[in-house]
Backbone:
């Protein structure tokens, strides 16, 4: 009888402490900050950095390439550049085909510096830029 009571007391204490720790966890969960701050160098910051790389390596559209790099010369025909949306100034250049035209841009030609001054452009982006200009004609 004596041991039975002791056992009951031990069991009750155990159950009580268990539920107390459960309750504590629940409270901690409830008062946890909604958005936690990510500091550079921490594990979570690595994920952010990785996603930034992905977003900057995304391909720019022909319009973006043209506006940022090519428009300086091609919008006004600077140094004899064939003008945007002005078929006459292009002569028979469009007949040369997109590959050849893009190759010319990569290498540069007379007044046009190599890469059309878009030094970080990929081949695809240069092609898109040329295509955007051809589409305007
Ligand atoms: C500094 C001025 C300048 C910039 C910047 C420039 N171009 Fe040009 N571009 C020219 C000139 C000048 C010509 C004409 C060259 C010639 O035929 O003598 C030309 C010619 C071209 C041609 C015709 C090529 C051929 O085979 O006849 C294309 C296509 C072209 N540019 C596309 C682009 C693209 C795309 C960009 C941007 C990524 C760009 N250019 C940036 C000046 C520029």
Residues:
């Amino acid at each position: 009888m004596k041991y039975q009571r002791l056992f009951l007391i031990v069991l009750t204490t155990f159950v009580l402490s268990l539920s107390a720790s459960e309750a504590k966890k629940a409270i901690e969960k409830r008062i946890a900050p909604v958005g936690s701050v990510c500091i550079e160098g921490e594990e979570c910051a690595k994920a952010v950095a990785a996603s930034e790389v992905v977003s900057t390596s995304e391909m720019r559209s022909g319009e973006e390439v043209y506006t940022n790099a090519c428009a300086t010369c091609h919008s006004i025909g600077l140094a004899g550049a064939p003008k945007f949306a002005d078929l006459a100034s292009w002569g028979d250049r469009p007949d040369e085909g997109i590959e050849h035209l893009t190759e010319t841009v990569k290498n540069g030609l007379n007044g046009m510096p190599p890469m059309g001054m878009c030094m970080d452009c990929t081949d695809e982006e240069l092609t898109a830029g040329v295509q955007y200009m051809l589409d305007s004609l």
User: Anything to note?
Assistant: The mean pLDDT is 84. The radius of gyration is 33 Å. Residues 1 and 7 are 10 Å apart (CA to CA).
